[in-house]
């Protein structure tokens, strides 16, 4: 065993975007989104190892070696030497649960500790954000993931570049999800007809949410946004309908072929899980409250 091997392990939470608007910019640090989403208590755990025996950076996700462009860019920007990265995702990957952003955030925390970089959280968020933009991951997950709760992204970009975040006041609650498949964020956001719909529907959703900043309004605006985009599969539509039939709230996780749902006044979490389990494996998570 190499006694000179060093390693650090860190965790970062997943994030579900309900609706968003894209803000383009030639500078990756300034490109981003406004919108609203939920930060989960489940996410990605990353172990970063440094050793004289490691001659090139290798990245593994759930045991499989990956190219991982987001993480690769992050390592290149923060590390002066090759590392071995082992990530374990406790959330579906590529389905709209912010796994890419969580992996980037956790990796940035590890590199900061491992190499004593002396960076603040906001500086690490900026590094992760740039890696997400350049690598074709998300455009706003990491800002929310560093904040927690039900995060409203009022101005795009990290706070180091003028971004502005707020939160919906709420007690902690459970969110239940079913992932049916993947959607490519990079491919979807390169379609101008889709991005046009995103920006129109996203602005409307944000305006309505700020008039009534509650978790129920967030879910209603997210549902409206998802139907306006037209990216819903038959399966996701069926799950949303089934949840609403028992009094719950549901919408599509952006961007993925997946549904997230919360209980309503006349619907318990147990009933919600039972209904959703008819369509696939249900995974549940807690969203931290402000109380």
UniProtKB/TrEMBL annotation:
Catalytic activity: (R)-pantoate + ATP = (R)-4-phosphopantoate + ADP + H(+)
Keywords assigned by UniProt, alphabetized: ATP-binding, Coenzyme A biosynthesis, Kinase, Nucleotide-binding, Transferase
Class of enzymatic activity (EC top level): transferase
Origin superkingdom: Archaea
Enzyme Commission no: 2.7.1.169
Pfam families in UniProt: GHMP_kinases_N
Pathway: Cofactor biosynthesis; coenzyme A biosynthesis
Entry's Gene Ontology molecular function annotations: ATP binding; kinase activity
Keyword Chaperone included in the entry's annotation: no
Cited InterPro entries: GHMP_kinase_N_dom (IPR006204), PoK (IPR012043), Ribosomal_Su5_D2-typ_SF (IPR020568), Ribsml_uS5_D2-typ_fold_subgr (IPR014721)
GO biological process: coenzyme A biosynthetic process
Residue span, GHMP kinase N-terminal domain: 76-149
Function summary: Phosphorylates (R)-pantoate to form (R)-4-phosphopantoate in the CoA biosynthesis pathway.
Family: Belongs to the GHMP kinase family. PoK subfamily.
Name this polypeptide is given: Pantoate kinase
Biological classification of the source: Archaea, Methanobacteriati, Methanobacteriota, Stenosarchaea group, Methanomicrobia
